[in-house]
């Protein structure tokens, strides 16, 4: 269920995220719903956010080069 549009959320906590990181740069989230990329730890307003209720950390694909 999507949350109120007025609540600030992080993509890192959303179940619609695909996470990736190049070297030591910030973690990037590619949204599975919109295909947009955002910094995963930044707070933003999102009307399709759904909390990931699993207790484990999100899977992050790491890359050594661009």
Name the structural class: mainly beta
Walk across the major sheet and give the strand order. Answer: 4-3-2-6
- Rg (CA only): 12 Å
- Give the overall form: globular
Low-confidence stretches: none
- Average pLDDT metric: 91
Q: Write down the secondary-structure element order.
A: EEEEEE
Helix tally equals 0
Q: Please indicate the percent range of residues in DSSP E strands (runs of 2 or more).
A: 25-35%
Helicity range of the residues? under 10%
Task: Characterize this entry briefly.
The protein has 66 residues and is mostly beta strands.
Walk me through what this model shows.
- The chain is an all-beta fold and 66 residues long.
- 0% of the residues lie in helices and 35% in strands.
- It is built from no helices and 6 strands.
- A 4-stranded mixed β-sheet has the order 4-3-2-6, with no helix packed on it. Strands 1-5 form a two-stranded antiparallel sheet.
- Strand 3 and strand 4 (37-39) form a beta hairpin.
- The relative contact order is 0.36.
- The mean pLDDT is 91.
Compile the SSE list and pairings:
Blueprint: E1 8-10, E2 17-22, E3 28-31, E4 37-39, E5 43-45, E6 60-63
Parallel strand pairs: 2-6
Antiparallel strand pairs: 1-5, 2-3, 3-4
């Amino acid at each position: 269920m999507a949350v109120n549009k007025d609540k600030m959320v992080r993509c890192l906590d959303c179940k619609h995220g695909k996470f990736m990181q190049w070297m030591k740069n910030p973690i990037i989230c590619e949204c599975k719903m919109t295909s947009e990329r955002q910094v995963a730890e930044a707070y933003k307003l999102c009307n399709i956010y759904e909390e990931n209720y699993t207790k484990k950390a999100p899977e992050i694909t790491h890359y050594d080069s661009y």
